[in-house]
Specification:
By secondary structure, the chain is α+β, with helices and mostly antiparallel strands.
């Protein structure tokens, strides 16, 4: 009997119940979409990291020795450690694609993850292992020849295997505006496979290696250098030809010392990283330049930040939609129970237990929210989460990643259902405590009293319709609250959607109209000599830019916690590569000082006038600088120097970019010391392609905003109509036309929407920037939503409000006055 009654009530109150179903389904689907991506990535990454024996510590230096490795391995907390050398090379036959080359004699830590072919063999001097994603884009296969160019030396190896690197879950070639997997690959080779003789010979001819360098690494020829003293000569007196002859006589084993190990990767037993820095530093007598953990490895940290952002979104959106569903249940069920007061009394009088009656009314929210949660789980697990995973698979490479069903879905699903049932229970419990004899009689009318609005000085000047609506709002505070909050959240989501559509051009203007405004960017390879670069700059004009990795501190001899891994940018101040002030206007660096990015200054509490200390990753020499200004950078944090001030420090100046407006820059692509040339048009297209995900988010925000506003306003209007049905019937009897009654209902929805819009709008700009910047500590956008976007968003919400009001026109027109007024409710 009660089950059939429940079905009849579902049919009679389809609108509110369908709204709860829809909100529960959307909340669950959004949660699984975002959180499902997070948990699926975490499970796949955990297996991936274990399979590759991901290190906890990355240590950089000018040259680590086997004695250093042995000393570190002897530490109690070290599980495994390994030496390697990393250089940035290029693939000349693949359009100069970037090759991050790792040279190793062991394969113990951060091992390549095999996709196809043979496992990496550090004793194979003829083979190379390259990234599977790159190979697929470039149509390369196991057994093909692969040519690499580094520092003017070109060599070809056979592809033995296609692999992925656990340190490169995110990868982006230097100078690319977005992720293009065809432009970057990791390559693994035996340390002994590198053509060191050709390499050293080339560097001698380029005057990048001197006799002093050879003396430092070649003890065998110490006797030769000692002889120089007898003739009154020094190593600096040796000619280039004499050096080349000396190199020809050196063994390959001795020459390999000219290629020192620049990295040591360490796996600890306790999973801790920088907590052990002092012990490691003491073990190797502080012969290192930088030590970092996974939080500072770009290929890992970028995905960590993305997943943190998705997890925040998953709970935020779920709470928003469930909160609105709870308000709908609370108002709808209270109305239903009040309306069925005599039915409840009758069931009590016939001997039906209160627990059974209570369960009957709780079953409305129980089944509706449960079905909504089930629908959301099915949509999330089988559609939206796999879709999101496939979307981000273009940007992050994690082998074995697929959508999984996680127990947290059930926990959240149960929590959603429980929250809806609890809201139902709190709405019903008061009436269910009434004795049957009282419940069989109509509820006594509420004692009339003046509402708050009647105390307004201009109350008597208001129209009848305005006074009527204000009294109704005062009597139904929860319904009004639901309308206002729902509309405010809808306004926020609509503002995100409309605002983001306008913010993309803003972000593009900041990047290409203010920061990097040159028509061409010439990317310089690591072996480019200053004389070659200066000659090209003289020919093309433009501005040289150096970008490198550094450590920054506020104190001398800092501890681990007092250092930050950041980026240094060195510019010439010619206006082709600029920094922006805190209001996103182009500003300049004060001569004799260094500028610090806003987010770094906030984290390290750095102020204008302070002295900071920094050093390049590749060197252990620290320098000091005075802070002259704080600037804002949207996606890179660190410090900025003028070239003339940087050169005064004595640090090696190695430009990485030439910014120029000369169209002849395109012809420089074939130069050995140029790794690529990008036009501003190409970079804009790449940037816009990278914003495709933003376009999808815009559409989703607008859609969910519309759904939320329609759901809230429809339910508010429906409840208002049902609560005032006798009043509307009376007004019709007194001669008021249906159009005027609908107008009163529309005005109430309209003004509640206005209040919601005004409450939601001020939070738009603040929350939108917070949402964008939540993608990692390197992001620091301060975008301003145009006033027109606020107006458009508000208009869209109001249009929805007006359209919803028309849904009640037919119900008001068909209102049966006699039926409504002849009986007791």
């Amino acid at each position: 009997m009660l089950f059939r009654k429940m079905l009849r009530e579902f049919k009679a109150n389809f609108g509110p119940f369908f709204s709860v179903f829809l909100l529960a389904a959307i909340a669950m689907m959004l949660f699984i979409t975002m959180e499902g991506h997070v948990v699926s990535q975490n499970v796949a990454r955990s297996k991936y990291h274990d399979a590759c024996n991901l290190s906890d510590i990355w240590m950089y230096g000018e040259g680590f020795t086997s004695d250093d490795l042995k000393a570190v391995r002897n530490l109690d907390f070290v599980e495994q450690a390994q030496l390697r050398m990393q250089v940035t090379a290029s693939a000349p036959k693949q359009d100069g694609a970037q090759v991050d080359l790792f040279l190793m004699k062991e394969n113990e830590v951060n091992t390549p993850y095999l996709i196809e072919g043979e496992d990496f063999n550090p004793d194979d001097t003829d083979g190379v292992w390259i990234a599977n994603a790159f190979a697929k884009k470039r149509d390369l296969h196991v057994g093909d020849a692969f040519t690499i160019e580094y520092n003017g030396v070109t060599f070809t190896k056979t592809i033995r295997g296609l692999v992925e690197s656990v340190e490169y879950e995110f990868r982006q070639a230097d100078g690319d505006a977005d992720t293009y997997l065809e432009n970057i690959t990791m390559a693994y080779m035996s340390y002994d496979a590198f053509p060191v003789r050709e390499y050293v010979t080339h560097l001698i001819k380029q005057e990048k290696i001197t006799a002093a360098d050879i003396k430092k690494h070649a003890d065998t020829y110490q006797a030769v250098f000692d002889k120089l003293d007898e003739y009154g000569m020094s190593v600096d007196d040796l000619s280039q030809d004499m050096l080349l002859t000396l190199v020809e006589k050196m063994s390959d084993e001795k020459l390999t010392k000219m290629m020192p190990y620049t990295q040591m990767v360490i796996k600890t037993t306790d999973g801790k990283a920088l907590a052990h820095e002092d012990e490691i530093a003491d073990a190797i007598n502080h012969r290192y330049s930088a030590m970092i953990d996974r939080k500072s490895v770009p290929g890992l940290a970028r995905l960590d930040s993305e997943l943190d952002q998705h997890q925040t979104f998953s709970y935020s959106f779920m709470i928003i939609f469930v909160g609105i569903a709870i308000l709908v249940i609370a108002t709808s069920m209270k109305r239903m129970v009040d309306k069925q007061r005599t039915e409840i009394g009758t069931m009590n009088a016939l001997g039906m237990k209160k627990g059974k009656i209570l369960f009957h009314y709780l079953s409305f929210s129980l089944f509706i929210s449960l079905f909504g949660v089930i629908a959301g789980i099915l949509l999330g697990v089988f559609w939206s989460c796999p879709w999101l995973i496939s979307l981000f698979a273009e940007y992050y490479i994690v082998p074995g990643l697929h959508s999984i069903f996680h127990p947290i879905y059930l926990v959240v699903g149960v929590a959603i259902v429980a929250a809806c049932v609890l809201a139902d229970f709190l709405s019903c419990k008061k009436l269910l405590k009434i004795r049957p004899a009282e419940a069989l009689r109509p509820a006594p009318p509420k004692q009339g009293k003046r509402c708050l609005f009647e105390k307004l000085p201009f109350w008597n000047k208001l129209s009848f319709q305005a006074q009527y609506n204000l009294r109704d709002v005062s009597r139904s505070k929860l319904r009004a609250f639901m309308s206002i909050i729902g509309t405010a959240v809808g306004m926020l989501l609509m503002l995100y959607g409309v605002g983001c559509n306008e913010l993309v051009p803003q972000m593009e203007d900041m990047m290409f109209g203010k920061s990097t405004i040159s028509e061409y960017q010439v990317k310089l390879s690591a072996d480019a000599s200053l004389s070659e670069v200066n000659a090209m700059q003289e020919e093309l004009g433009g501005e040289l830019v150096m970008i490198d990795q550094i450590e920054v501190s506020k104190v001398q001899n800092p501890t681990t916690d007092e250092k930050k891994k950041q980026t240094i940018t060195v510019i010439e101040g010619k206006g082709l590569y600029n920094i922006l002030d805190l209001d996103n206007h182009i500003t300049s660096i004060k001569p004799g000082t260094v500028s610090v990015s806003r987010k770094l200054s906030e984290i390290m509490k750095i102020h204008v006038g302070d002295t900071i200390y920094w050093h390049l990753y590749s060197k252990n020499t620290w320098y000091e600088a005075k802070v002259g200004a704080i600037y804002r950078n949207s996606d890179t944090q660190g410090i900025a120097f003028l070239k003339e001030d940087f050169e005064k420090t004595g640090a090696a100046y190695t430009p990485t970019l030439l910014m120029t407006d000369n169209k002849d820059a395109e012809s420089k692509k074939t130069l050995s010391y140029v790794s690529g040339v990008n036009s501003q048009t190409e970079m804009k297209e790449a940037y816009e392609k990278g914003m495709e995900v933003m376009s999808i988010m815009i559409f989703a925000m607008i859609l969910f905003s519309a759904v939320l506003v329609v759901t809230v306003l429809y339910n508010s209007g429906s409840l208002s109509f049902n609560e005032r049905i006798k009043e509307f019937a009376t007004l019709k009897v007194l001669g008021m036309q249906s159009a005027k009654i609908r107008g009163m209902l529309s005005r109430q929805n309209f003004w509640l929407s206005i209040i919601g819009i005004l409450l939601g709008a001020p939070l738009g700009n603040l929350t939108l920037n917070a949402m964008i910047n939540s993608n990692g500590e390197n992001y620091d956008y301060m975008l301003k939503v145009p006033a027109m976007d606020y107006i458009l968003s508000g208009i869209f919400v109001l249009i929805i409000s007006v359209l919803v009001s028309f849904l009640f026109a037919k119900r008001i027109k068909k209102l049966d006055m006699i039926e409504v007024l002849k009986g007791v409710e």
